[in-house]
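the two lines:
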Amino acid sequence: MKTSQSAYISEHKRTGMRPLYLGLLLGGVVVFFMLNLMLGSVDIPLVDILKILVGRESTHLAWQKIIINIRIPRALTAILAGSALSVGGLQMQTFFRNPLAGPSVLGITSGASLGVAIVMLAAGTITSIFAIQQLSALGGWIIIGAASLGSAAVLLLILLISLKVRDNVTLLIIGLMIGNITIAMVSIWQYFSQPEQIRDYLIWTFGSLGGVPLNRLWILAIAVVVGGLIAVGMSKSLNGLLLGQNYAQSMGIPVSSSRIWIIASTSILAGSVTAFCGPIGFVGIAVPHLTRSLLGTNDHRVLIPGTLLMGAILMLACDIVAQVPGSSTTLPISAITSLIGSPVVIWVIIKRKNLQASFS
Amino acid sequence: MKEQSIISTEDLKIGFLPQRAMKSAKVVAQQINVALKGGQVVCLLGPNGSGKSTLIRTLSGLHAPLGGTIQLGGHDLTRFSIRQAAREISTVLTDRLTVGNLSVYELVSFGRSPYTGWFGSLTPKDNEIIEWAIEATGIEQFIDRDVLHLSDGERQKVMIARALAQDTSAILLDEPTAHLDLPNRVEIIRLLRELARETQKGILLSTHELDLALKAADHLWLINMKGEVFTGTPEDLVLDGTFESVFEQDSFDFDRATGSFTLHQPTKQPVNIYGDEVAVFWTRRALEREGYRVDDSNGNSLQIEALSREGRLEWTLLKESNELSCGSVEELIDKLREITQLVDAD
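prediction for all of em together
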């Protein structure tokens, strides 16, 4: 059994770097979390942030309020949103075996928008999403539920079509078209709405990480944790699906039930984040590619935690940029993610020669 | 144990369910009564579109049968869960592999899926079986390579290693030799034969390599365009003419005497060839290509003698009392063309 022994050593060498990379990513999340708290319209020194975090009084009472009431909820929302969208995108890419798949491309995000739009319409003339959110925990759940149902409806539709259409590119184009239909429906609704509603909805579509107060954050947190746990539970199925549905089933993966779980997880993740933060594009596509390149693996047992961490880092970084440190301006977060995300994807394509190769 | 079938079918009917309620199902083949036994290599042959892939997918549980039963080790396949079935049958399909960022070792380890827990963690025993599969297929040199950077032949071996890691009693392969060059085709068939003998697994493969199948298979399953299935040892099927009838085509003929296909029907006069055995074999192929009928009767007017003289081959063409000597097959063919032109001119 000499060869076996050498294979073991080789395997150790193969996977030995991965915990290190995951550790580095975790460190990255901590660093960017702290930076996110420090930078903004007012720069707050690290010492004071640490003081406030451990519960001691800061020299400035205003800083304490800014950190606890604004920046901590914001940074935590960034972590949740970044992780959720990235893992949602990863699942879509593996499931559709398409490197360009992602919640925003397949119309899942627009499905969530439609869900939110319907709730806002149904709630009457004076209601805006912020009003519903501020109302109560129940209001928060209604928005999450509507957004999740909206994204699940679009995903189910795409799934039904995927039973007939085997070609991934065709499916992707159909997804884009469904996204367009959804956006058109929202436009028609807007056309017949009050200006105040439209304004609120438009602000919502710019995306914002700041709209989730600390006492509502746990709703988003629960949704993301549930969606994330389902994704982790699907690691083995996703690995099998890398080889296609036939191979997955021949290796004992229950493909039909896995489909449902993967769709449920992606809908919850993308739906809840869209409900709270608006449609944030591009993170879902870019982060899985970045993580695969860094970790050099498509094994979802490593890739999912890696993507969670990478998504959090990218979103925290984008939020720092969106805050424009030193000024009182805040840019729309969805514009920043696209500005940063697109060059990243271009870089990955060029570096890996082709995207199909870097993915699956 | 060896006599017990791993997979057997009873009046199996395969095909596709109707797309719309009003239409009837498309039956590809029916009345299929076949059995795959341990330690056997079975080749599934048939013209394009005869339903080889459908049969393989149906037997591996990926495609629902239209009727009849499939038995797995004596139990009905429908009673197996996906996970249980995956412990009995593994497959190598024609589905294109597009995954990257995945090492060969990781890919082979996916074969352990039917045995691992919810997270897919490998136990030392799983790793042992994976390493055995890697050794058995001879892919040790590239276990760390990205599966994207494998040649077609290497990738096929890796997929077979993955099927081996699945530790099933049968492996079903859909055209494992397609897209491979000749050395790789022979190598894959040799590997499968060796695995069948050493592991007593039942191995079923569909292929277009009729020559290779006739030589390597313990058993043949033939499907013709009418969806009829015939089984038997290759030799019996050739001798009773079944093989010929399945591949009946206008453009070429199956030569029962040599077990090979000839492209055209003989149009020219009969020829005798004798002499050095190897030289006779190859000369015969060239003559058949030219349209001559080569037979063993002695009274032909055209006779060719291929002999090795002082380490060099020499062909002597005997026609009536004329004698022509040639140094190569090419020269021989040229001379023959000249002669026949003269004959035609007469």
